[in-house]
Amino acid sequence: xxxxxxxxxxxxxxxxxxxxxxxxxxxxxxxxxxxxxxxxxxxxxxxxxxxxxxxxxxxxxxxxxxxxxxxxxxxxxxxxxxxxxxxxxxxxxxxxxxxxxxxxxxxxxxxxxxxxxxxxxxxxxxxxxxxxxxxxxxxxxxxxxxxxxxxxxxxxxxxxxxxxxxxxxxxxxxxxxxxxxxxxxxxxxxxxxxxxxxxxxxxxxxxxxxxxxxxxxxxxxxxxxxxxxxxxxxxxxxxxxxxxxxxxxxxxxxxxxxxxxxxxxxxxxxxxxxxxxxxxxxxxxxxxxxxxxxxxxxxxxxxxxxxxxxxxxxxxxxxxxxxxxxxxxxxxxxxxxxxxxxxxxxxxxxxxxxxx
Length: 356
Hints:
- The chain is an all-beta fold.
- The chain is built from no helices and 24 strands.
- Strands 1, 2, 3, 4, 5, 6, 7, 8, 9, 10, 11, 12, 13 and 22 form a 14-stranded antiparallel β-sheet that branches. Strands 14, 15, 16, 17, 18, 19, 20, 21, 23 and 24 form a 10-stranded antiparallel β-sheet that branches.
- The radius of gyration is 20 Å and the shape is globular.
């Protein structure tokens, strides 16, 4: 038997110890955070994942300063202990479940201590299940929550407090999606994946939209939710027919000015800065989620945001920090995350990475 700290909590759902999570090698359990100042500066993001069947944990922290995305990556053996939320210089603390969490970083010249506190109860997004032919590629659940951020970040000794009123988003997802080394026998043909996600902080409410779609534009998972400040699930308003009219930056697959229609209201999203998701391991050839680096491995990376190639596959996945204008002059901030791989007819995209 492989007993771990989790076995002392009443959270079991099978007769197995918590160390075992079904039989699918792609099972994962993950944290994500981002945050930004009210003027759109000081963008940061963090991620922490465990991959029980691969016996790997990894974590990442990034902050954007003066056009450079400073990234810290870490990976270690999980040791079948899923309750240890530390990976080298990065750790997560659950202060109050479903409301308050802390991100602590100290390594390779990058340090931070950030407290995230929710603005409302987290939303539960619809279960994501995606199959290509007979193969299940994704099957996972995610909760998402907007919140207030306070604390500080230091880069090479230059410490700066988060600006008053800083906000952001955090999520938790768990289930199955491709992790670790790629499957050498996957016979799905040329890959296609289209994803949009827009957690937005407006003054009195949060707005959440997401879309997963097939190459012809037909959605296989989409929804929008409006969550008033301080509300619980009973106060959420769900919309199952949202519509995003997406612009693309010239020569890229990155979002430009776009319009989101939700429940008869229109929101204009205007990008003001860009964050490369490979800094958190997404699509990264070296620091992809669940890759085995042996024992503890830690590495710092700097991404010059003005110098990267937008057509390179690991640069497709971005979060654009946006100014958002809603009805009657309502104004807020949020991110427009997009990953467009392969064909997508509504935006005139064809091939694996080519722009319009």
